[in-house]
Specification:
single chain, mainly alpha, 11 helices, about 0% strand, elongated
Length: about 200
């Protein structure tokens, strides 16, 4: 057991620290360490319950760490349900990117693309981390038509010269055997804007 009492005590200290305005960073770090000690579904559920009771499920950093922990333990479905329940409350691209990454790494490419699509509904804009994770999901699905749409969105966002986006585009076009687009993306690696 991860020590529910120690988690509750850490939450109390964080609430006290927030009231006093000191020590919140140390408490957040302590909760992150406690989260890393989760090793099974019961631990994850206990930690999630703690987050809800103490309203820490609205903290973007802790929620992202929670999603990563669930994913690393093989509980991406649980992470996705927590994300989906809170998606209208958290409007930070970091949480969306973490969920897309977790779903992509757990071979849930379709769900990853649904989360990517929901970024716009949350009035957010994809960033240089969103596109590579979404493009990885496209590769997993071998869905070139979706990849070209995401490529267009990257161009509109002005991120088509970002080194990470270009690398993901090269990977996507080469995996989907689209040589013409692969050649145009490959030239981006030599452009000064990508370096």
């Amino acid at each position: 057991m991860i020590g529910l009492r120690s988690a509750i005590e850490a939450g109390r200290r964080q609430n006290s620290a927030l009231i006093k305005g000191i020590g919140a960073v140390e408490i957040e770090r302590e909760l992150g360490c406690l989260l890393k000690r989760c090793s099974n579904l019961k631990h994850v559920e206990q930690f999630h319950g703690f987050m809800v009771r103490t309203a820490l499920n609205h903290d973007k950093l802790l929620l992202s760490q929670f999603i990563e922990t669930c994913s690393s333990l093989g509980f991406s479905g649980y992470a996705y349900s927590v994300f989906a329940f809170n998606s209208e409350r958290h409007s930070h691209i970091y949480v969306f990117n973490t969920m897309i990454k977790a779903l992509t790494l757990s071979q849930s490419a379709f769900e990853a693309l649904l989360v990517y699509k929901s970024i716009g509904r949350a009035n957010l804009r994809p960033d240089s981390y969103s596109f590579p994770f979404a493009l990885k999901a496209v590769v997993d699905l071998q869905a070139l038509h979706l990849g070209t749409q995401i490529h267009s969105q990257a161009i509109c966002a002005g991120l088509d010269s970002n080194i990470h986006v270009v690398a993901a585009l090269v990977q996507m076009y080469s995996s989907c055997a689209c040589i013409r687009m692969l050649a145009s993306c490959s030239t981006k690696f030599n452009s000064p804007a990508s370096l």
